[in-house]
Write a structure and sequence with these properties.
Blueprint: E1 2-5, E2 8-17, E3 23-26, E4 32-37, H1 42-51, H2 53-68, E5 80-83, E6 86-94, E7 102-106, E8 109-114, H3 119-145, E9 155-159, E10 166-168, E11 173-177, H4 185-197, H5 206-215, H6 219-229
Parallel strand pairs: 2-4, 6-8, 9-11
Antiparallel strand pairs: 1-2, 3-4, 5-6, 7-8, 10-11
Helix pairs in contact: 3-4
Length: about 240
């Protein structure tokens, strides 16, 4: 079926079932399916669609983009990059007099200053920016939560991991992935709390998750954000 609302069109299918409530399902390809009890009118289905229009459109778009996989990065003016959970355009300036390539975030723009206009130089400047911001945010979060723990981390490192967002070893050494700087503050704080809880419980037993739940009641939401968005946290 096709329904138009606020000047936009949405394609969806209705799957009728014997009983239950109306539910909306979006598959991995971004296709929208409405599951409704037999006898539900199309008008009622359209009303449900309209009430959830923005969320459905956004999730469908995300699923379609995810199927395509990470796009090849282009380092041109106006290209968007994630920072603290939102996308911002980049603006590139060449200045041969600067001491070091660097990035300044100001007024919703990632200003990139480089000595040479080369993609690799721009990419490395962005990575350093994310490293620095991740380190600052993680260290502040650890200080804010330290009073809740009797033990302290022996060291804190920011790393370039392809597999984990954070780790805690038996020596109480904490490591965090620099890409976390692309996630919202609440997601970063959850990962910090998760690893700090490992200072008390090194495994993922019930005691560990009870402690995590106490420190971060909405941790499932943060995990879901990472699961949905990790594929686009790239430079």
């Amino acid at each position: 079926m096709r329904h138009t609302y606020s000047g936009e069109a949405m394609q969806f299918e209705i799957n009728y079932k014997k009983s239950g409530s109306i539910g909306i399902h979006i598959d991995t390809y971004g296709n929208v399916e409405v599951q409704a009890p037999k006898g539900t009118s199309v008008e009622m289905v359209n009303q449900i669609i309209e009430r959830n229009w923005d969320q459905i459109q956004q999730k469908s778009k995300e699923m379609k983009e995810r199927m395509l996989g990470p796009k090849k990065r282009i380092y041109h003016h106006g290209e968007s990059f994630l920072y603290l959970g939102k996308t911002y355009p980049i603006q590139i300036s060449q200045d041969s007099t600067i001491k070091k390539d660097h990035v300044v975030f100001e007024e919703g723009i990632l200003h990139i200053f480089v000595k040479q206009l080369e993609d690799e130089k721009i990419k490395q400047a962005l990575k350093r920016f994310y490293y620095q911001r991740c380190k600052a945010i993680v260290e502040k979060s650890i200080r804010n939560h330290q009073s809740d723990f009797k033990v302290k981390p022996r060291s804190i490192r920011i790393t370039d991991s392809k597999k984990t967002w954070g780790t805690c070893d038996s020596q109480l050494q904490l490591t965090f992935n620099w890409r976390l700087a692309m996630a919202p503050h609440e997601v970063i704080h959850y990962v910090v709390v998760h690893e700090m809880c490992h200072m008390v419980h090194l495994n993922h037993d019930r005691s560990f998750w009870r402690l995590v739940g106490k420190m971060s009641p909405n941790f499932k939401e943060q995990e879901n954000w990472l699961a949905r968005s990790s594929w686009k946290m790239t430079v």
